[in-house]
Amino acid sequence: MSDVLAVAEHRRGELRDVSAEVIMAGRELADALGGDLHLAVVAGDVDTFADELNREGVDAIHTVAEGEEFDHNVYQAAIAAVLDGTDAAAVVAPNSVNGLDYAPAVAEQHGLPLVTDAIDFEYDDGLTVTREMYGSKVETSVAVEGDRFALTIREGEWEPAAGEGDAPIEPVAIDSVESGARVAGFEEVGGGDVDIADADVLVSVGRGIEEEDNLELVEELAEALGATLSASRPIVDSGWLPKNRQVGQSGKVVTPDVYLAVGISGAVQHVTGMKGSDTIIAINSDPNAPIFDIADYGIVGDLFDVVPALIEEFE
Amino acid sequence: MKVLVTVKEVASAGDDFTIEGTGIAESDLEYDLNEWDDYAVEAAVQLAEAGVADEVVGVTIGPERAEETIRMALAKGVDRAIRVWDDAFATGFPDVASKVDVFEAVVAEEEPDLVLSGVQAADDGFGATGVALAERIGFEHAAVVNHLDLDADAGLANVHRELEGGVEELTEVDLPAVLTVQTGLNEPRYASLRGIRQAQRKEIAATTLDDLGLTAEDVESALTLTSMYEPESESDAELIEGDAGEAATRLATILREKGVGA
Prior knowledge:
The complex is a heterodimer of chains A (about 325) and B (about 260).
Chain A: E1 3-7, E2 10-11, E3 14-15, H1 18-33, E4 37-42, H2 46-52, E5 60-64, H3 72-85, E6 88-94, H4 99-110, E7 114-118, E8 120-123, E9 127-133, E10 138-144, E11 149-153, E12 169-171, E13 181-188, E14 201-205, H5 215-225, E15 228-231, H6 233-237, E16 258-262, H7 268-271, E17 279-284, H8 291-294, E18 297-300, H9 303-313
Parallel strand pairs in A: 1-4, 1-6, 4-5, 5-12, 6-11, 7-11, 14-15, 14-16, 16-17, 17-18
Antiparallel strand pairs in A: 2-3, 8-9, 9-10
Chain B: E1 2-6, E2 9-13, E3 19-20, E4 23-24, E5 29-33, H1 35-49, E6 55-61, H2 67-75, E7 80-84, H3 87-91, H4 96-110, E8 114-118, H5 129-137, E9 140-151, E10 156-162, E11 167-174, E12 177-181, H6 193-201, E13 204-207, E14 223-229, E15 238-239, H7 244-257
Parallel strand pairs in B: 1-6, 1-8, 6-7, 7-13, 8-12, 9-12
Antiparallel strand pairs in B: 2-5, 3-4, 9-10, 10-11
């Protein structure tokens, strides 16, 4: 029997949605392990965050009021203090960019086996985690030895914890941290002439376009449809389109009436940014591409045949 | 300063593949340098070209087959490489701590000032080794770096960390540090013919656990891969059949119904 520690996440004064999901996953684990669920709220306006996250299933909330923004050294010190002061032996954190900046260090510091990017888990005399491999082409089960471990969970895979809880909120004091990684500020990227988030119709292009010169083809399609051109990450990484055209986790979240994905496989980071579109249409040569899992309409075929034919339809 | 770059040869599966036991059939796998590591290599080589790095050393955990991939990193400008292998890595599912055991021993020998590592490996997508290594060896770190400006004299790396939703965090990191490199940090070069020729003469030091003062028990994994399967398709998409022309006609009708191009 052991307790579980979930770690909340916030940025620039706002809690991130994944915080409530981490509580849900943590509650499931605590039930399996027969222990309590602790929640750590670190940095920023911890009292407000703690009130907001005092949901059903949380047994105790530990607040560490040190610093404003995320700092992995503060998070590490705070988590160490909470682990030290409780019976928690398992840590659940978001598989976010910040989660991946401290969870591996926490696991290493406390000698906890680490499994990242969990999409599900089961507990039956031991933890077995479901996670993807080979770019979402397969799912795997990973069995973890022992009941002490660290887990990061993919955002959006667990329901957010709801309801009002009555967990005691306890401030935890830590020694002030001289951090060797100091946040100097933030920068919004992807400004510029076009806001793809405003578009009603998006033609979005991915790796399937193969070469920069071929972009003309989708530009022509966007023009024929009166649509705005957007892209998946590889196109922007290659410098073929500017960052303000990128749809996905690290780009823009878009919800157009129609999203036409051309040569986009549909990696989870991309899907996060466009799954709220009203109608999703995918053109891809790989019938197993994950984009078809969320598409309303699909054409399995060569975009270099289909797109010119489609342009012709609108001329 | 000396830069250590961790590189991994990763496997990818084609559109059609067969799962055998807990892995994909060898004949359905293609091997290549991990995409994220390609950006890390480029960053290291640029530091050498700018006169900031005196030496760039690559390190990999991989079987002999991986030398072909590692040689590509050498062709792009990495000075020499260390390839660590033990059959224990082939039979099990190495956890983060066992990879860190290896890299820790290599760091102790090489004493780098900066370690560059890809954010994640394309095959297992764990995304944890670099940060765990930093903790083990007492280096500072920053994860998911998409902009790097190194001030060696001040002992600082000014980085941008790519957060979700189009926001970047500007962070000042003390050296020595481990930075995990995101795609898009730079434009990885193609190896030149001259580079490829030079790479043939560069050293890839085949290294055993024993050479590093480690045993198979040290790198025993706490994780076991117990199954692998193709996820059930959740698709309820209406697939538009026919040749390109027919499909385009049908799609045009659907688009017009949605008010597109009207």
